[in-house]
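User: I'm preparing a small set of examples for a lab meeting where we compare how different chains pack in three dimensions. I only have the primary sequence for this one, and I'd like the structure in token form so I can line it up with the others. Please keep the answer compact; I'll paste it straight into my notes.
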Amino acid sequence: MNFFEVFQTLSGNVWIYGGTFMLVLSILVFVHEWGHYIVARMCGVRVETFSIGFGKELGGFTDKNGTRWKFSLIPLGGYVKLFGDVDPASMKHEEGTEDKKTKKIKPLTKAQKKEAFFSQPVWKRSLVVFAGPAINYIFAIILLTGLYVYNGQPVTPPLAAAIMGESAAEENGFQPHDLIVSIDGKDIHSFEGIRREMMIALDDKKHFVIERDGKIIDIHAAPKKVEIEDRFGFKNSRGLLGLISPRHAVKVSNIKKIDGRSYDDPDKVRAAVVRKMGETFTIEVERGPETDRLTVHPLSENNEFLNDAEHDEFDVLFLSSRKGNIFVEHGPISAFIHSIKEAASITSGTLEALGQMVMGSRSATELGGIIRIGALAGDMAQQGMIAIILFTALLSINLGLINLFPIPLLDGGHLLFYAFEAILGRPVPDRIQEYAFRLGLTFLVGIMAFANLNDLMQLIL
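Assistant: Understood. Below is the structure token output for the 461-residue chain.
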């Protein structure tokens, strides 16, 4: 898509794309700030403001504890302002309060100091700050656990339904129906797991353990580094091994060659395919302006309808099981354990991808901003509730992870200063903190500007 096509798509579905993005973001911001809020309250700290958004207040209420809960004009974030802090970022604190009548600053009383955030011991301040990112992880794990218990864990078996021609998989001897058991010693339980490992691998050689006809085989192969462009025009790099998912099927009418022999009649193609059922052969499939060559081994029991012109799937060749996707049932404990594993896998994958950007093996242009996240949110909404839940969990984990980075202004930056305070026995000097916060602000604004400009440039160019 070019910029105008993307704009037309997004503007024509503003409630789907914009609405979904704002809803998911607001929920995650609320969850994050509620983590700070509830732990602050548990530690005896007074919370002055709980805001979803920044800037001018649009509406809200004040609860019995004196906390102002409000929605603000700019909805891209939120904050909790703790008593005694000058600003929501806890960059500075005040030693007094303004008298409403005289407008003079009065020193804090002992009771007020007891409720002020800055006067709390370092371990309490650390808990309050850590609670935001922590509850993002907890929220994601709760979402995934609930999904796995009530709906089952959506899983595509780690099975090669077919092998792409001229791919790393073909060059290294992978065959249709190979089951991927592990990659570099890491157990693989789904095709999504293979994709995730290849996305991070880029072109590094990996050790694959596969099961073929009941035998265990070792293959060492390096995927090919490719640049993938989604339908909006956003680009990202990943390793392409060349295995086709069990969810993949082929239209018989799009098959142009079988074992190198050309066909121009779909009925002859269908007859040739039926004769080769249960065998390994190659097909060339027309996909728009491009043609893909695949090595396949379709099974007759999954394609019984190919000779039934009245069947709805008469023109569909299933390369593997017709189900493709399965839902693994879990009890509460099993679901909880798998949710933690999924959160850990997403975290390690994100960190590795960011490390590759720093080292230069992955382009920094893959950093996405508001437009890209909004586009993903809209796509997930169109796929259904399961996709939205998975997307929300993914975003919550990444929000928690990013906030733990030791960058001043982020929660991780505060925790870094508290760690120095605990080691030194005194706070880091205000002057150093102020310079650090300024650098952190400059860095974060620069990253946000780069990511959003990057989205625009990829759409325009």
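A couple of notes for your slides: The CA atoms of residues 277 and 300 lie 5 Å apart. Confidence is low (pLDDT under 50) at residues 1-8.

User: Perfect, thanks.
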